[in-house]
Amino acid sequence: MTENVENLVLEHLWAIRATQAEHSEALASIRLELSAMGQQLGALTTSVYSGKSELDSLRRRVERIERRLELTDASH
Fold first, then answer.
1. How far apart, in whole angstroms, are the C-alpha atoms of residue 37 and residue 42?
2. 37-72 pLDDT tens trace
3. Distance between CA atoms of 30 and 48, rounded to whole angstroms?
4. How far apart are CA 46 and CA 54, in angstroms?
5. Rounded distance, CA 10 to CA 28, Å?
């Protein structure tokens, strides 16, 4: 009887170990995906700020052109 109980306990421990291994693999995959998402977010942020900088530059150029051509409103 004791041998059967020991075998049963070992079988449960092996099943737990297998499940743990599956969870470890899933966690590693999730970490990899999260890292990739972080890199993509960083690239998007850089792109947004780059576009904002270009827009600000264009805005300054248009304002300068308007001033030189005296096209600005009196309220500016």
1. 9
2. 999 999 999 999 999 999 999 999 999 999 999 987
3. 27
4. 12
5. 27
